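S.,

Sequence below, as promised.
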Amino acid sequence: MKRIGIALVILCIVLTAFGQKEKIQSSYIYNFTSYISWPESEKSGDFVIGVLGNGPIQNELINLASTKKVITQAIVIKNFSSAKEIEKCQILIITENRSNQLTEALGKINGSSTLVITEAPGLASKGSGINFVMKDGKMLFELNKGKIEKNGLKINSKLIALAVLVD
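The prediction came back faster than expected:
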């Protein structure tokens, strides 16, 4: 009986930690929109955040989108089950369970002004613009400045100062 109780406590702690992780990530993602500038052609209509894969981050982003805007643009969240489905979006989040589709996703958005955000070790150096990492129990983000600028986006120096820079 005690083992079941301990297992339930551990499960609750783990589930809470996952919920917090996605809340933190969604806050970061929203704040990135204040420190990254998209071309003028991307500043009208909806601000689309695409999510490749399923996960709790999508629900957090939907909650965020119901109360926030990117300047005057309404935020719309789109889900893509595979890289083949990816359509135009200002931000593309590739969930950890779809990390193996990074190369295909990058090919799909090639030439567009899309910020690619990932959450698996090493993906910033493999082509994503921003990659969430955990270090010493803290969430940090790696930033691939060259990749972001290649996509036609401008990064505020304040964001660069907060990031772990990678090539």
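The longest strand covers residues 73-80.

Coffee later?
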